[in-house]
Task: inverse folding
């Protein structure tokens, strides 16, 4: 893995979790906080096994 992938692997999951916690589980609000599309957020949450239906 390259340096970028290593950094993303360490940082992205906790960042997503913190944004979701801050937004009270609201995906639209968390996506807005992160500056990403809601669909992208959902895909990333699923990838990191953070998606709660």
Result:
């Amino acid at each position: 893995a390259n340096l970028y992938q290593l950094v993303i692997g360490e940082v992205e999951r906790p960042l997503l979790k913190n944004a979701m916690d801050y937004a009270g589980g609201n995906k639209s609000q968390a996506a807005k906080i992160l500056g990403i599309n809601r669909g992208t957020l959902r895909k990333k949450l699923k990838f990191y096994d953070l998606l709660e239906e």
Q: What stands out?
A: The helical segments are 3-22, 27-34, 38-47. Residues 3-22 form the longest helix (20 residues).
